[in-house]
Amino acid sequence: MRLVVRLLGTTGVLILLTQPLWAPQWGGGILTEIAGRPPWISAAIVLGFLGLVALYCRTLQRTLTTVRPWARRARPASVWWMFAVPHNFVEDFFIVRAVAASLAADGVPPGPVRRWSILGFGWCAAQIVSLLPGVAGLAGGAVALPLWAVHWHLTVRLNAARARRPPAGT
To answer: Quick one: three-class SS letters along 46-60?
Structure first.
């Protein structure tokens, strides 16, 4: 079932990503806005964003390394699938789910895991909305970025708290 969700979801993302090619009259989304800038500005935006994604992936990888191996629901390196465009838009949901399940299995209380998950799924959904044309896409991006930043901040705080906890068995 997960494979079907991944395939159908990635197909939907591909349709949204290519929409400016087959329905330019609908306008573009956030990607069209970025592409409409001078090339050096577009490149700086894209490279800066990819750099931030890399730092975020490193933070999530660190989160999974704090989880005892028997409680992990994904390998720590699996978070780097966030770079597998266009599949990443769908895979991000699975990454958030796996990290949350790992944290829960390793004894993180349900409240913090639930808040972490809701923020994570929120930015995942909003980034897909950002692929829509016009105002809807711009609004999706405007919602996705702050949710992602808050989620990242919460992840850093969670990692710091987990680093201070006593070792297992004490």
So the answer is: HHHHHHHHHHHHHHH
Tokens 């306008």 belong to 27
Q: 98 with 73: CB under 8 angstroms?
A: yes
> With contact defined as beta carbons under 8 Å apart, do 138 and 33 qualify?
yes
Residues 6-35 have pLDDT tens digits of 999 999 999 998 888 888 888 776 777 788
* Total residue count of the chain as it appears in this document: 170
Beta carbons within 8 Å of 87's beta carbon, 6+ residues apart = 6, 10, 13, 81
d(CA 64, CA 134): 37
What does pTM read for this prediction?
0.91
**What is the Cα 148 distance to its own chain's centre?**
7
Tokens of 108: 């993180």
* DSSP class per residue in 130-146: TTSSHHHHHHHHHHHHH
In the 8-state DSSP scheme, what is residue 17? H
What is d(CA 128, CA 77) in angstroms, rounded to the nearest whole number?
23
The SS3 call for residue 37 is coil
